[in-house]
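TASK: fixed-backbone design
INPUT:
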């Protein structure tokens, strides 16, 4: 069995902490076993390892999230990278092509697809293992895992079982198994309808489903899509920009669903996420007076003081500041949907950076100032820029710099000027902090031509 975790999101629902490169799954706000903050993706990855599924798991994501994933989970994680964001059907099709043509996975192998960020117990992933048995026993094209509802939610989609089908139970040496045939799906019903569906034993749709690799490979072939990974990459932009639910699930006739009765939550809005945040204040600040069910999450160095406000969330980051009644906080996605603001904070495989200041002068010259932190023993890629000049001021730590093939050591207090087209990299012996000032006519992250990532490879290039 193989597991594909879908990591996407535009970073709007938990603005300003989330952005295009740091979606909700990367926010370090959940308490781990020791009380230290961890992200949703880190929590899920640990649970997958506890369930014994780590070596079978892959993460499918877009290029902007790759370095964030490597930063939080390590460079050894298996990542399937989409050339561009297109929706869940293209992402799953690409993953299937990768498993088939690169990993050599057999056509009879079960593939389980799920989101990368559910808030669940480890038992959720143990239960997901049973989807393979459900497929084998039922002969269905798709096996879904649905959560048994605890209340008539209007926020979730529902899996509706067939009216003329009784739950099917199986008992063998591996234990008891139960599933039902599926007749339809209902997205976010009104409360009255949700109550009726609960009476029909409908399940919350948590986005977890399984199929035999052969099932989707045959669909791709029938649709004229490539099944070789490299060819799929070339033609990725031609795939329909649509969801897997719409393209495959809703058009399939033989679908079954397996119930899960443990804890499951979608922490996709501030009001649901703060239910799981242990501390009411994260970062600099103070909450005083009568302030019930109120949270302040502050990533800035400026303290926030909140007085006599209940049921409120205040979130502050370099991207902006949100002050909202918790019940109204889901509105932020709609409000921010047309925003094209560049991310002001990002985590990378080598560390992180924060934008401190940005100016654009009347003549067209732009100046961008960043505070960069390079983790100990990590290095930047060997790269050059075509549109900008950079000045680095080392404010702490020490390490090595390569500039146009020449290597030298740097320490706190050193200043380097990196002209356009200059090939450069840096490796930190100890954690290093750098103030970087970019000057040019167009300051964009895409103005990076990377020549190498691995430090030994960089040294070989310099020697050559």
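OUTPUT:
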């Amino acid at each position: 069995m193989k597991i594909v975790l879908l990591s996407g999101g535009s970073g709007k629902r938990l603005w300003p902490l989330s952005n295009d490169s740091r979606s909700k799954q990367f926010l370090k706000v959940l308490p781990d076993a020791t009380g230290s903050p961890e992200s949703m993706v880190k929590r899920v990855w640990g649970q997958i390892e506890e369930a014994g599924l780590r070596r079978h798991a892959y993460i499918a994501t877009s290029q902007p999230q790759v370095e964030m994933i490597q930063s939080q989970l390590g460079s050894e994680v298996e990542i399937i990278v989409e050339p561009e964001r297109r929706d869940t059907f293209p992402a799953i099709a690409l993953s299937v092509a990768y498993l088939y043509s690169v990993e050599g996975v057999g056509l009879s192998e079960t593939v389980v697809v799920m989101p990368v960020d559910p808030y669940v117990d480890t038992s959720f992933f143990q239960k997901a293992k049973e989807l393979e048995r459900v497929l084998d026993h039922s002969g269905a094209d798709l096996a879904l895992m649905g959560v048994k509802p605890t209340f008539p939610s209007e926020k979730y989609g529902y899996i509706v079982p067939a009216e003329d089908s009784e739950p099917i139970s199986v008992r063998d040496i591996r234990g008891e198994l139960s599933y039902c045939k599926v007749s339809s799906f209902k997205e976010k019903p009104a409360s009255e309808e949700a109550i009726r569906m609960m009476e029909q034993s409908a399940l919350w749709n948590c986005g977890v489903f399984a199929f035999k690799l052969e099932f989707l490979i045959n669909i791709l072939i029938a649709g004229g899509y490539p099944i070789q990974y490299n060819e799929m990459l070339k033609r990725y932009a031609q795939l329909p920009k649509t969801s897997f639910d719409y393209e495959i699930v809703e058009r399939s006739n033989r679908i079954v669903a397996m119930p899960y009765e443990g804890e499951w939550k979608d922490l996709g809005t501030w009001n649901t996420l703060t239910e799981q945040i242990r501390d009411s204040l994260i970062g600099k600040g103070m909450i005083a007076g009568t302030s019930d069910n109120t949270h302040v999450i502050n990533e800035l160095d400026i303290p926030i003081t909140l007085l006599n406000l209940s049921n409120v969330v205040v979130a502050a980051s370099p991207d902006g500041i949100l002050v909202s009644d918790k019940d109204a906080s889901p509105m932020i996605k709609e409000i921010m949907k047309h925003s094209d603001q560049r991310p002001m904070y990002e985590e990378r495989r080598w560390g992180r950076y924060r934008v401190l200041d940005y100016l654009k002068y009347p003549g067209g010259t732009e100046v961008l100032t960043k505070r960069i932190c390079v983790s100990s023993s990590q290095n930047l890629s060997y790269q050059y820029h075509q549109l900008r000049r950079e000045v680095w001021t080392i404010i702490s730590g020490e390490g090595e710099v390569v500039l146009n093939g020449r290597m030298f050591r740097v320490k706190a207090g050193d200043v380097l000027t990196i002209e356009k087209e200059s090939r450069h990299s840096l490796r930190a012996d100890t954690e290093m902090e750098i103030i970087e000032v970019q000057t040019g006519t167009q300051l964009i992250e895409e103005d990076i031509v990377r020549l190498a990532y691995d430090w030994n490879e960089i040294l070989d290039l310099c020697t050559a």
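COMMENT: The chain has three domains: 2-265, 271-336, 350-463.
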